[in-house]
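Subject: Interface between my chains keeps coming out wrong

I've been trying for a while to get a sensible model of this assembly. When I model each chain on its own everything looks fine, but I need the whole thing in one frame so I can look at the contacts. Pasting all components below, labels as-is. Any help appreciated, I'm running out of ideas.
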Amino acid sequence: MAALRELISYTKLEDGKSQSFRTRAYEKAVDAIASNASRVCDMTLAELTEIDGIGDSTARKILEFSSTGEIAKVERLKDRFPPSMIELMRIPGLGPKRVLLLQDSLQVVDVEGLTRAIEKQQLRTLPGLGEKSEEKIAQAISLLGLHSDDSRMEIADAMETAHRVISELESVDGVLTIEYAGSLRRLSETIGDIDILVTADSGSLVVEAFVNLPGVTAILGSGTTKASIVMGDRVQVDLRVVPTESLGAALMYFTGSKAHNIALRTRAIERGMTLNEYSLSDVNSGDVVAAKTEADIYAKLDLPWIAPELREDTGEISAAENGTLPAPIAQEELRGDLHVHTSWSGDGRSSLHDMLDAAVELGMEFIAITDHAEDLVMNGLSEERMLGQRREIESLRPSYPTLTILHGAELNIGRDGSIDYSPTFLDGFDFGVASIHSYFELSVAEQTERLLAAIENPAVNVIGHPSGRMLGKRGGIEFDADAVFAAASSSGTALEINSHLKRLDLSAPMLRRAVETTDVLFAISTDAHHVSAYNHQRWGVAQARRGWVPSHRVVNCLQLDDFLAWVGERRN
DNA sequence: GCCGTTTTCGGCCCGACTGTTTTCAGTCG
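Reply #2:
Try treating it as a single job with all components included. I did that and got this:
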């Protein structure tokens, strides 16, 4: 992956442009790999070229990298262009053309040389550059420290910032609607910058309020309809104000992904139309065909509305066309939550009573209380305390006639795949979630064995956050996904879709692979430790959509009787 | 470099902004 990204950067220099067809093809290949759950390093030439966006040439480069650890073409280009020139291209305002120009005319190939050239005022002598460009580049270099390396943020942090900005702008006079777009709306795991889309009577009033938000450390630009700011030390937030009649087109444009947009525009051209951020219009007359809602525009392109979480150009458009796209699962379809903690656990913050009250208020029909089991020493419950909790649940049941309460536990999958408590004690539970909380570094074979053992255990109904990843912190365990999906499919054990924005576990490519290759079932769970965390369910639902999971594969969408039958079948 | 119910060759998304220019190149999203 990293090697292919290098190939992209060097090819931009070789071609002297950032959008050559070759670099675009490479970029598409990288996207295709990222959204594929299989390990490309283990694949054959034929398997690789099967993947949409990867042809013979790229496939051979991947094979070459798998066997030799490098790509000859990249090594050749490194001789022509020092790696420091790639660094230069990261400076805002410097693209491949100007970086090549620097090398040719000033023999500048790195940041140090560039700084010296700026001091000597040499940049302004170059064709197409002047005094102002020189100043801008100088400024960009001084900011490079802040924006260097990986400036993408975790989705949890981005979401928080977006909501803060939105709540601040809501009170601005004349604001009609505010939505976040971009990768945040698509629920990407990491977010580059936050895109906020506003419809309002007056753009300038909104921009004015936006650039004066608390926490703004830099204003990168501002006009009457758009502005960019930096919040804190590195979060870029872009604002666009559009007329109400363009809301649908603008939302589509700013939601992306870029690849999805390009595919739609190509589709528009095939139909004698052109699509931009203002409208879908007839290419000859210029008449607007659709603009106000996303659904209108998709409809005029002969497509059903495609959920933002699916807009990655990984086959969603042809699936939509053929009617094979799963109906996007809706939060309203969920009838219960199957991974819930209470203050009985060391880390639960709301009482059992409060968690049940909130569940009823949200209209849940069933719930599994799953506090930590005893092997999680810090927070787990001893057998005695588990029995105490069971008695409390029994005493509370009459007060919740509309809610079926299952007494469960979040069991720990040990190093060897065993779980807490004795088999007889486990029999006493109504429900079991088993999760990995330790030994993240074992081999693929060992991790797979652990998961398979837990899947086969009759006390286990759901495997909680199966990879154990924490976004931005740890990658999660590596395991043989196909073996795990197959085992869970035949045993009837569901795989969790954990709703927490720091987990979103399983990942979307894994989910999609599981859906497409097996009949495995899923459970969308909040893993709530507080009543407020029930609303994380929306992220779990969005993650399911990202993984193309249809609602009939989700156990908490089942009718109560069917759900209880599934639980019982597993435990007998 | 990729891809194909218009094509195995000849196409490949669209616009804003900026700074540099007298009509446009480069960069960005």
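Reply #3:
Confirming on my end. Chain A has four domains: 2-143, 153-241, 246-322, 331-571.
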